Amino acid sequence: MTKIKMTVPLVEMDGDEMTRIIWQMIKDDLICPFVDLKTEYYDLGLEERERTRDAVTTQAGEAIVRLGVGVKCATITPNRQRVEEYNLTEMWKSPNGTIRAILDGTVFRAPILIDCVKPAVRAWQKPITIARHAYGDVYRATELRVPEKGKAELVFTGEDGTNFRETIYDFECAGVLQGAYNKDSSIRSFAHACFNYALQTGQPLWFATKDTISKQYDQTFKLLFEEIYEADYKEAFESAGLYYFYTLIDDAVARVIRSDGGFIWACKNYDGDVMSDMVSTAFGSLAMMTSVLVSPEGKYEFEAAHGTVTQHYYRYLKGENTSTNPIATIFAWSGGLKKRGELDNLPELVAFAENLEAASLETMNAGIMTRDLVGLAEGITPVAVNTKEFIAEIAKRLAAKM
Ligand code: NAP
Ligand code: MG
After folding, report:
1. Ligand 2 center to residue 15 CA distance, Å?
2. Residue 207 backbone phi and psi in degrees, to 5
3. Which residues pair with 13 in a beta bridge?
4. If you measure from the C-alpha of residue 18 to the centroid of ligand 1, how many angstroms do you get, rounded to a whole number?
5. Is the distance from CB of 373 to CB of 123 less than 8 angstroms?
6. Residues with CB under 6 A from ligand 1
7. Whose CA is closest to atom 31 on ligand 1?
8. For residue 275, how far is its CA from the centre of ligand 2 (angstroms)?
9. Does residue 1 surpass a pLDDT of 80?
10. pLDDT band at 375 (very low <50, low <70, confident <90, very high)
């Protein structure tokens, strides 16, 4: 069989721990046998980030801007414990945060549904897509440990000399401080991305913040969404039979649980981070959630929504063949290859990506699954396999399709 040719490389971003192991398995067993894979490779593993003083992350982000499509493996975001474990000279920032800041995009996360796994929330019948604003807020905040008694102030100095100064708190003891920001331009492109994606996928759009408490910060998001909807999308939504709905984040949480799904839920950065984990877990498993970052210029970054699955990695290091679910990482690859195929006019590459997804779903619908799904399967007798066996089963079905 001749392998499928690519013309423009995909930006490949390798990562850490268990997902790094799975990354290689997917390439070896599911992609390279069929595709003459062309990538521009960036190692975002923590050791390489330390060695390059995190320059590699920025280079990878810039490569996505240049080439248009990237696929990213999960990476460790260092905390205090990781700094010790990996002997780091600095607590490097979240690579995802850095890349999102370069692309200024919106992250859409949707669960991968299979027939035999019913969502934990009985009312849900259709997928719920979380649209996560991928810029600013706590992910780009400046933080400070307040060491002692003292006054904290919020200061803004305008270019023309305007000055704004307000007391945040008169500390009578030690404490903490955080300065977060966002930009109207970024909020606007977030809103456009959500309204467009809703129209493209034929789903209504919900948006929720805490504007009653955050009277400037969250309120700005609410007002910009309203303004953009009224000006640019209302007509198109109405003629498509869709709607835009704003509510408080706590009200949204209650409504989402009672709903039957089938809508896009736009969230601010942190809400989207947490809610997508909740939604994916309730739909089955964190490992069944796809994630794509779309920039306002139409650049794409595909990844799994879950992390590096550290506990499995430690067991892997002890020689165990773990049953870690590779589906979201496989769908990151298929998503990236499909997008590359669409942009470069390579129908064979698009077809390959679709076959890879179909082979993955068929494997699970046949009852062959990793341990995270076994306890959730209904109406069939599932067979628990380890990651290597699972990928081999997908490869078998994929080869038959090719
Ligand atoms: P995690 O790696 O997503 O794992 C949390 C738990 O979810 C796992 O312990 C496992 O449960 C289950 N799980 C997640 N993915 C799975 C999969 N593919 N197959 C089977 N089970 C899966 O999150 P974490 O433990 O909070 O974070 C670990 C590291 O990942 C951290 O260093 C964090 O910084 C990083 N992280 C990276 C990203 C990213 O790059 N996008 C996102 C989140 C976290 P059981 O142990 O019960 O089996
Ligand atoms: Mg998260």
Report:
1. 16
2. -140, 140
3. 42, 72
4. 9
5. no
6. 74-77, 96, 286-287, 303, 306-311, 324-325, 372
7. 76
8. 8
9. no
10. confident
Counted residue by residue, the chain has a size of: 402
Helix (H, G, I), strand (E, B) or coil at 374: helix
CB atoms within 10 A of CB 44: 27
| Of 8, 70, 68, nearest in space to 36 by CA | 8
CA angle 231, 233, 236 (to 5 degrees): 130
Buried b (16+ CB within 10 A) or exposed e, 21-32: bbbebbbeebbe
Q: Which helix (H) or strand (E) holds 352?
A: helix 347-365
Amino acid letter, 298:
G
Instruction: Read off the pLDDT of residues 85-105 as tens digits, 9 standing for 90 and up.
Output: 999 999 999 999 899 889 877
Q: What is residue 286's predicted lDDT score, i.e. its pLDDT?
A: 81
Closest residue by CA, ligand 1 atom 4 = 309
Residue 114's identity, in one-letter code, is: I
For residue 276, the CA-to-ligand 2 centroid distance in Å is: 7
Query: How do residues 107-116 score in pLDDT, each as one tens digit?
Result: 899 999 898 8
- Distance, in Å, from the CA atom of 264 to the CA atom of 144, rounded to the nearest integer, reads 35
Give the Cα-Cα-Cα angle 85, 91, 96 (nearest 5 degrees). 105
